[in-house]
Amino acid sequence: MGTFGVKSGLAQMLKGGVIMDVVTAEQARIAEEAGACAVMALERVPADIRAQGGVARMSDPKMIKDIQAAVTIPVMAKVRIGHFVEAQILQAIGIDYIDESEVLTPADEQHHINKHAFKVPFVCGCRDLGEALRRISEGAAMIRTKGEAGTGNVVEAVRHMRQVMSDIKRASAMAEEELYAFAKELGAPFHLLKETARLKRLPCVNFAAGGIATPADAALMMQLGCDGVFVGSGIFHSGDPVKRARAIVQAVTHYNNPKILAEISSDLGEAMVGLTIDNNLKGGQYAGRGW
Amino acid sequence: MSSDTPETIVIGILALQGAFAEHQTILSRLKLPSHPLTSLLVRTPQDLAQCSALIIPGGESTTIASVAARTGMLDLLKEFCQNVDKPVWGTCAGCILLAKEATGLKKGGQELFGGMGVGVKRNGYGTQLESFEVMLDVPALRDPERPFAGVFIRAPIIEHVNESAPTSISIHTEIVARVPPSCLPAELHDAAETSNKDYTVVAMRQGKKFVTTFHPELTKDDRLHEYFIKRCVLGLVAQK
């Protein structure tokens, strides 16, 4: 139990799927009915954390248990970066996956959690290949690009996915002596970089996150090479969450079929309000959290 | 075209959600001496129409069923899976979808494709913390003395087997693999001892239908894929 095989294996079962942020058992049921492959249980979606400010922490275990009781799909929950006791608590209530997330306020500005010490698998955010491989070396069994959560603006998600993909392409064309230098440049463990170069992809599943608000956004991230998507505020901050949730699920399956995408993008009601990502962004840029 | 050119076997892999790419990777390594073999990711009715056989991968069965319904695939998949002449293999979520009955489903239940006379319990072992790996004895495979790595992730449990279901034709059932009883959740382990019930079956074949509650697609071992093609697709009998 708790082998890397079953940890990364669960992430492989989520591929081609949508993981949706939910704050109540009722929203979790809507997500399950829409075809979400997992839900992320949290107290406030990123757009609200941004708007309300303050320290964002792990959710109340009682609220997470209510969501676990309401659905049969895997339930994930977030802990603060470096807060290993929040992770111990989530493991104790039988959560299926932990997101060590920059969306919550970091508890440690130097260290991430030693994720090898847990039976429950972890997903972590990244902006480039070096950050992804540092997290995998700490025991993460799934990676997501960070994007900029709670903005409804896909530009950072695209930037991070393109960065990871371009780093992988560069590594794949390198001779071994070049890889040693590139590992140093990326701040990545050499053995994981070598494995990535051999596989021509990350050695685990990689989802996209942070700013996905429409079916077209989701399909864009899939065409850029991710394995599935996280949608946070984009669903329950939109005009018609049921319709939009279903449409984004369909878009991740049929990401390469513009005809189907045109059909499912029609008549979805209002998308969430998007924010410009600059130095005035309320709550600041979360993607910079992580070391 | 000469009449003795063997027909290309097209193995469809249902690609609505889940670990379909992993199945395709393994199939791409397999070679048959008798027939050319190709695989096809199935996302639309037009894709399904080209397939001689189908693999339903691991993933989330609720997601696969609801995407199937919204893509206009549900009735076609039921028809394909319930046709005794069509070879179909379901792994984990695929096993649930291929079962005639299932328990532990989401509120309001979910659609199943049917085709296999078994009753399964979804998430039979518990949450992800109860996921495990164990070496399995699978005597029907090539190199039978070499065990097969069973990766069980939020796996279903086969609760009962109906020999003759789902059609009136009686179909031979072959138990292909079992887990050691020590892997079962404590309550089922106890129930099995008192009531003669058997919850240890993790791979079985009924005619051309095959289910595994674990994930051969997560290993580098292609012997179960080879088994499916030989026994279900080509219909070769076991060599004694």
Automatic annotation (TrEMBL), chain A:
Catalytic activity as recorded in UniProt: aldehydo-D-ribose 5-phosphate + D-glyceraldehyde 3-phosphate + L-glutamine = pyridoxal 5'-phosphate + L-glutamate + phosphate + 3 H2O + H(+)
Domain of life: Eukaryota
Domain Thiazole synthase ThiG: 210-253
Catalytic site positions: K78
Protein keywords: Lyase, Pyridoxal phosphate, Schiff base
E.C. number: 4.3.3.6
Associated pathway: Cofactor biosynthesis; pyridoxal 5'-phosphate biosynthesis
All residue ranges annotated as the PdxS/SNZ N-terminal domain in the record: 4-209
Pfam families xref list: SOR_SNZ, ThiG
Top EC class, one word: lyase
GO biological process terms on file: amino acid metabolic process; pyridoxal phosphate biosynthetic process; pyridoxine biosynthetic process
Residues that coordinate or bind D-ribose 5-phosphate: D21, G150, G211, G232, S233
Coiled coil: none
Chain sites annotated for binding D-glyceraldehyde 3-phosphate: R162
HAMAP family reported for this sequence: PdxS (MF_01824)
Protein name, entry field: pyridoxal 5'-phosphate synthase (glutamine hydrolyzing)
Native source organism of the sequence: Dacryopinax primogenitus (strain DJM 731)
InterPro entries: Aldolase_TIM, PdxS/SNZ, PdxS/SNZ_N, RibuloseP-bd_barrel, Thiazole_synthase_ThiG
GO MF entry, a single one: pyridoxal 5'-phosphate synthase (glutamine hydrolysing) activity
UniProtKB/TrEMBL annotation, chain B:
GO terms assigned for molecular function: glutaminase activity; lyase activity; transferase activity
Presence of the UniProt keyword Lyase in the record: yes
Active site positions: C92 (nucleophile), H215 (charge relay system), E217 (charge relay system)
Listed GO CC annotations: cytosol; glutaminase complex
EC number(s) on file: 3.5.1.2
Keyword presence, Repeat: no
PROSITE patterns the UniProt entry points to: GATASE_TYPE_1 (PS51273), PDXT_SNO_1 (PS01236), PDXT_SNO_2 (PS51130)
Highest taxon listed in the record's lineage: Eukaryota
Catalytic activity, reaction form: L-glutamine + H2O = L-glutamate + NH4(+)
Alphabetical keyword list: Glutamine amidotransferase, Hydrolase, Lyase, Transferase
Binding sites annotated in the UniProt record for L-glutamine: G59, E60, S61, R122, I153, R154
GO biological process: pyridoxal phosphate biosynthetic process; pyridoxine metabolic process
EC category name: hydrolase
Pfam families linked: SNO
InterPro entries referenced in this protein's UniProt entry, alphabetically: Class_I_gatase-like, PdxT/SNO, PdxT/SNO_CS
UniProt record similarity statement: Belongs to the glutaminase PdxT/SNO family.
The protein's name in its UniProt record: glutaminase
